[in-house]
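Is glutamic acid placement plausible here? Inputs below.
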Amino acid sequence: MTVITRFAPSPTGFLHIGSARTALFSWLFARHHGGTFRLRIEDTDRARSTDAAITAILDGMEWLGLHWDDDVVYQFARSARHAEVVDELLKRGQAYYCYTEAEELVAMREKAKTEGKQFRYDSKWRDSTETPPAGSKPSVRLRAPREGETTVHDVVQGEVVVTNNQLDDMVLLRSDGTPTYMLAVVVDDHDMGVTHIIRGDDHLTNAARQTLLYQAMGWHIPVFAHIPLIHGADGAKLSKRHGALGVDAYRDMGYLPEALRNYLLRLGWSHGNDEIISTAQAIKWFNLESIGKSAARFDFAKLENLNGIYIRDTENTRLVELVMEHLTRRHIHVTTIGHERLVHGMDGLKQRAKTLVELTDSAIFYVTSSPLVYTEAAGKILEDGGKILLAEITPLLTTQDDWRAASLEVLVKQFAESKELKLGKVAQALRAALTGSTISPGMFEVMEILGKAEVMGRIASCYSV
Ligand code: GLU
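Reply from A.M.:
I modeled the complex. Tokens:
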């Protein structure tokens, strides 16, 4: 059997981080089995579906590297096919016309509420021989079994048994002829040959009703895997504060797609105690059995740490490109020389950064020319004796020709010793003047990369601060 999975977002907003994890799991499962991963945009809710949301979903998937196979399926465009299946169900006696008006349904709901009962549609037209009211447009409902029970065999949740008298005759086609979500999703999954439905467990109750529809059509029922939702670090439902944002926000916050993939994978799936799992390993190892049964907690600190690890593991050329993108977004112009420094400095810069935003922040001193913007702490170092030290070391630097880091280190060390100062004290003064900050890669490396002229220029200009 060829595995076919799908991701079926409704385009009513951005690509939510929880949906991205669902997509990732479906994608990994298909890739693991050498199968097919399809994307279906569930745009039947015309009022809420937008083109901007479709674009955000497609962009988010591309950015995350979750490439789908074949063309994107748009659900709304398949309405005629959905109606065709309803015709078939009517012919088979598995569905019936229902003339109950919307107002009647509202009244029934109200009545159930006041009586403290759960609302169940009374199936009035199921076997009715009454003549339908003239001019009334019927909806079509599924003739669901009354007796027995329906079992959803879920790989994650186990056997979920629902007694059929709890499931009323659901609407398949509304009275205006539009298909319901329940109908569309089953017809599309069947027609697309989906073998495994992997989605959030908020759809678990739908799975029982959908099973009835598969049975009514005599169709093969796919394997279900309902993944527990993601909660915040405090165990509460994921809110914006917890990280319930779009994938685009994670991109802007400076996360690498491969780090986010790794993090999302671990959010609800495990392979022993492995935390760092490359995509290649994930494809090799992914299975549905190791999906956890309880809600995973989203933890920004963990994601940041993981991202830092991935940054250190990323090739410098790519990091330079990414930092350039962030600089452009901040309207910081980079000269050829600035770019060159960035390339040379990347090894040192990437050791500390947890996000590309931090990496960009830490790289700014390489690409901007003086006068620098000094942090308060750097300004203080310069004022508290830093400028004096720099004035004293300037003649030594001026006459220094060998501008390699190792030679500069010898020079600065000798200077510090001659003044009976700790090397750190001199290095901090240099750091403040050259980077405008108190944190940077190794000072001698920075000096080498900036070059003599730039170093001398920056030292000279720090006096005017
Ligand atoms: N369109 C549904 C949603 O975005 C998903 C349907 C499904 O996966 O079956 O929640």
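Short version: Residues 376-398 form the longest helix (23 residues).
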